[in-house]
Amino acid sequence: MAAFLELKEISKNYTIGSEQIWALRDLSFEVASGELICIIGKSGCGKTTLLRIIAGLEKQTSGEIILNGQALKDTGRERGMVFQEPRLFPWLTLEENIAFGIKGRMSRELNYKTVADLMEMVGLTGFARAWPSQLSGGMAQRAAIARALAVDPAILLLDEPFSALDALTRSKLLTDFLHLWQRTHKTCIHVTHDVNEALTLGQKIIILPSNPGRIGDVISLPFPYPRSLENPELRAIKERVLSQFFADFTD
Amino acid sequence: MTNVLKKTMMALLLPFVLVLVWQLFSQMGWLNNYLLPPPSGIIDQLFALAHHGTLLKHLSASLYRVGCGFGLAFFLALPLGFLLGLVPRAQDYLSPFLNFLQQIPAIAWIPMFILWLGIDETSKISIITYSGFFPIFLNTMHGISNTDSKLKEVASTFGLSPWQIIVRVYLPSAAPSVFVGMRLGLSFCWRSLVAAELLGASKGIGYLIQEGRELAQPDLMLAGVLMIGLTGLFLDFLFLRLEKTLLPWRDTQERREVPKWQPF
């Protein structure tokens, strides 16, 4: 299968004083259409930077990103982004927030239908007129996912979207997100520091090492959903991922 | 609704007790009625003024000046505040100068304004414009430049043009701050009005106080002072209602109280 999204030797460095700090170094990987990929790494390994580069919010120092045969630059509607925080617009109601990206781009009826469908899909029906300040963290993050999906992006980028939530809400949202993905089969890149989250969701896991000079592991997870983390194969993989993490510590 | 009633009662309690004590002390003869006329005397004076139509004449003259002055201040300060909020580089050039101007109270300009613009309405309205300008300008500028960059990022991931980002992110984000500036600005305008009217006016609330001084009528002076306070309170209330109507989402958030202080 031809690659849908292709990252070619992406590097990013910062100059701090006279020193050059590499956040990412010659990172390459491919994502197939409809694939759900998890990028996992410890904090500070550059995983958020990588996602922001794909989104166009930051510029890579070198390298190229190709989506559907076209080199990417700047931000674009074909890449939806869900941030760690919901980042809803406080002056818009829930439905207006979800409709933010499609406002004025389609008929009123279609707009209304799109928003209503999305609210149903993320389980927010009945909250159309609520203000963001009235929502719980989990609801706000659901709304943020719906807002990103409203423009029907070719690829959805998720930057630790569940990490700021409490454990119970997180596992509920994780399950719901999986259902959502199974329904839409949207190409997703999901960044996380949580190994269990990556094993629950990912068809493929990319391990981003703390030392940007090293090439990270890519692990395929050809297991059906919903998965049990008690599955011996998954447990073995978890061991492998964790040992890589700890190997980093002893470097 | 009962909540509104309760709040109104709570707000009226202190003034009511004060007036009651004041009236009682006056009637007991513990207060010098010339230096501090009783509340009933002031109210009588107000009724007399209202009855003759003089109160309305003075009040409308003052409101007209404040209306013009505030309107002018608003239309000058708002675009300038937007511009400087959007272009931080311009702030480096303009901020020190504007900060210098801001230090000068409106009252200090009165003689010069009269010299330049004559003793008529123009100089009075200019004084009022001057005092209302800075709070509106500064709050608008800060509102725009404090726009959450995280929300700007969200807007740019949806491929919005810079102009769309201004209209759909900067403006609504700055709106509460603009309102704070407008409320402060109106209050500043209203205060400087009296200063402008103390010199060379033939009508207006400030003139009324001046007349009370010349006629040695403390009840007239206090009636004027009372009118200033009440009208200012009423205008502020109107703006607060306007803000609630235009920015309904603010009601669900914590409100910042508008600081009211100006070195005069």
Give the helix/strand layout:
The complex is a heterodimer of chains A (251) and B (264).
Chain A (H helix, E strand, L loop, with lengths): L4 E12 L2 E13 L4 E5 L6 H9 L6 E6 L2 E2 L7 E4 L11 H5 L9 H14 L15 H14 L4 E5 L7 H18 L2 E6 L2 H7 L2 E4 L10 E3 L11 H19 L1
Parallel strand pairs in A: 3-8, 3-9, 6-7, 7-8
Antiparallel strand pairs in A: 1-2, 1-4, 4-5, 9-10
Helix pairs in contact in A: 3-4
Chain B lengths: L1 H26 L11 H14 L1 H33 L1 H16 L2 H12 L3 H25 L3 H9 L4 H37 L6 H10 L3 H29 L18
Helix pairs in contact in B: 2-10, 3-4, 3-6, 3-8, 3-9, 5-6, 6-8, 7-8, 8-9, 8-10, 9-10
In short:
The complex is a heterodimer of chains A (251) and B (264). Chain A has helices spanning 47-55, 94-98, 108-121, 137-150, 167-184, 195-201, 232-250; strands spanning 5-16, 19-31, 36-40, 62-67, 70-71, 79-82, 155-159, 187-192, 204-207, 218-220.
Model description:
Chain A: Keywords: ATP-binding, Hydrolase, Nucleotide-binding, Transport. Chain A: Pfam families: ABC_tran (PF00005). Chain A: One of its GO terms (molecular function) is ATP binding. Chain A: Its EC number is 3.6.3.-. Chain A: InterPro entries: AAA+_ATPase (IPR003593), ABC_transporter-like_ATP-bd (IPR003439), ABC_transporter-like_CS (IPR017871), ABC_transporter_ATP-bind (IPR050166), P-loop_NTPase (IPR027417). Chain A has 251 residues and is an alpha/beta fold. Chain A has a single domain (5-250), classed as P-loop containing nucleotide triphosphate hydrolases (Rossmann fold), CATH 3.40.50.300. Chain A contains seven helices and ten strands. Chain A has a six-stranded mixed sheet, sandwiched between helices. Chain A has a four-stranded antiparallel sheet with strand order 2-1-4-5, covered by helices on one side. The mean pLDDT of chain A is 89. With 264 residues, chain B is an all-alpha fold. Chain B has a single domain (53-252), classed as MetI-like fold. Chain B is built from ten helices and no strands. Chain B has helices at residues 2-27, 39-52, 54-86, 88-103, 106-117, 121-145, 149-157, 162-198, 205-214, 218-246. The longest helix of chain B is centred in the last third of the chain and has 37 residues, at 162-198. Chain B is globular and about 75 Å long. Chain B starts with a helix and ends in an 18-residue tail after the last helix. In chain B, 35% of the residues are buried. Residues 260-264 of chain B have low confidence and may be disordered. The A-B interface holds A 55-57, 75-77, 79-81, 83, 85, 87, 89-93, 100-101, 131, 133-134, 148, 151 and B 150-151, 153-159, 168-169, 172-173, 175, 247-249, 252-253.
